[in-house]
C-alpha cells in the first residue's frame, strides 16, 4: 500500500520546474495564461505538468515570442528567450534588409529559399527588389564570413543578425578550381569550394554596398 501511495504521489508532482530567462522585460504566458512578469537578470520558475505547452513572452511593444516546449525531467530545465533578436528579426523582415554597421554592407533579410546554381544566384540578386533597392549582388566570400557568429538559432545557424536563411550561401568568389565557387556554411562557419552548377543546399543571400540613394530605390 505504501509503495502504491508513493507511486501515486510521484505521478501528481510536476514533471519539471522550468527556469525562464530573457534579455528584455516581458510578460510570460503558458498555454495562454499569464504566468508573471520577467526582467533581464531575474529569471522566473514555472511548474509544468508533463507534456507539451506553449510558452510565450509578450514584450512591452512588438510581436510576442512563442514556442511549443515539451516538459520532461529528461530535458533541459532552463530556457533563455532571445527576445531582443526576435524583435530585431521582426524589424528586419519588415524593412526587407539589415545594415551591418561594422562593414556598411546592407544584406537582404532572407536568402532565396531554395537550391540554386551560381549562375542562378547571380541572376536572382540582379533581379531582386527588396527594401526598395534594386542594386543587389552576390557577395564575395570575405564579405560573407563576418556574418557567421553568435549563438546557435533554432535552425542550427550561427548568424550575427537574425536573417532568414535556409541553407549554405553562395559567394561570387572563385573556388579552388575554375568551375567552382566558395560557399559558406552558417552552421559551423566553414567554407567549401563547390561546383558552380551544384544547387543542392546552396542559396543566394544578396548584398549591396552603396549608400541609400534615390536612384537605388528606383526613384527619379
SS content category: alpha+beta
What overall geometry do the principal axes of the alpha carbons give? elongated
The residue ranges in which pLDDT falls below 50 over 5 or more consecutive positions are 2-14, 212-220
CATH architecture of the largest domain: Roll
Tell me about this structure.
- The longest helix is centred in the middle third of the chain and has 13 residues, at 83-95.
- The chain has 220 residues and is an alpha+beta fold.
- Strand 2 and strand 3 form a beta hairpin.
- The protein has a four-stranded antiparallel beta sheet. It has a four-stranded mixed beta sheet with strand order 12-11-10-13.
- It has four helices and 14 strands.
- The model is unreliable at 2-14 and 212-220 (pLDDT under 50).
- 17% of the residues lie in helices and 32% in strands.
- The protein has helices at residues 2-12, 83-95, 118-127, 141-144, and strands at residues 16-22, 26-30, 33-38, 44-48, 51-59, 65-71, 78-81, 97-99, 106-108, 168-174, 180-184, 191-195, 202-203, 207-208.
- It has two domains: 2-81, Immunoglobulin-like (Sandwich), CATH 2.60.40; 88-208, Mannose-Binding Protein A, Chain A, CATH 3.10.100.
- The chain is elongated, with a radius of gyration of 23 Å.
Amino acid at each position: 500500500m505504501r509503495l502504491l501511495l508513493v507511486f501515486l504521489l510521484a505521478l501528481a508532482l510536476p514533471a519539471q520546474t522550468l527556469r525562464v530567462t530573457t534579455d528584455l522585460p516581458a510578460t510570460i504566458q503558458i498555454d495562454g495564461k499569464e504566468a508573471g512578469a520577467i526582467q533581464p537578470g531575474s529569471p522566473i520558475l514555472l511548474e509544468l505538468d508533463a507534456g507539451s505547452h506553449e510558452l510565450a513572452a509578450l514584450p512591452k511593444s512588438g510581436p510576442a515570442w512563442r514556442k511549443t516546449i515539451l516538459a520532461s525531467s529528461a530535458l533541459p530545465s532552463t530556457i533563455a528567450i532571445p527576445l531582443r533578436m526576435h524583435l530585431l528579426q521582426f524589424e528586419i523582415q519588415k524593412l526587407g534588409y539589415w545594415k551591418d554597421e561594422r562593414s556598411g554592407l546592407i544584406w537582404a533579410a532572407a536568402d532565396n529559399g531554395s537550391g540554386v546554381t551560381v549562375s542562378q544566384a547571380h541572376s536572382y540578386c540582379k533581379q531582386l527588389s527588396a527594401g526598395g533597392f534594386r542594386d543587389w549582388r552576390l557577395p564575395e566570400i570575405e564579405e560573407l564570413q563576418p556574418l557567421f557568429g553568435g549563438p546557435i538559432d533554432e535552425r542550427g545557424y550561427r548568424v550575427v543578425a537574425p536573417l532568414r536563411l535556409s541553407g549554405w550561401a553562395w559567394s561570387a568568389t572563385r573556388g579552388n578550381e575554375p568551375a567552382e565557387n566558395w560557399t559558406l556554411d552558417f552552421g559551423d562557419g566553414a567554407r567549401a569550394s563547390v561546383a558552380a552548377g551544384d544547387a543542392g543546399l546552396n542559396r543566394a543571400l544578396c548584398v549591396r554596398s552603396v549608400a541609400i540613394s534615390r536612384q537605388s530605390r528606383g526613384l527619379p
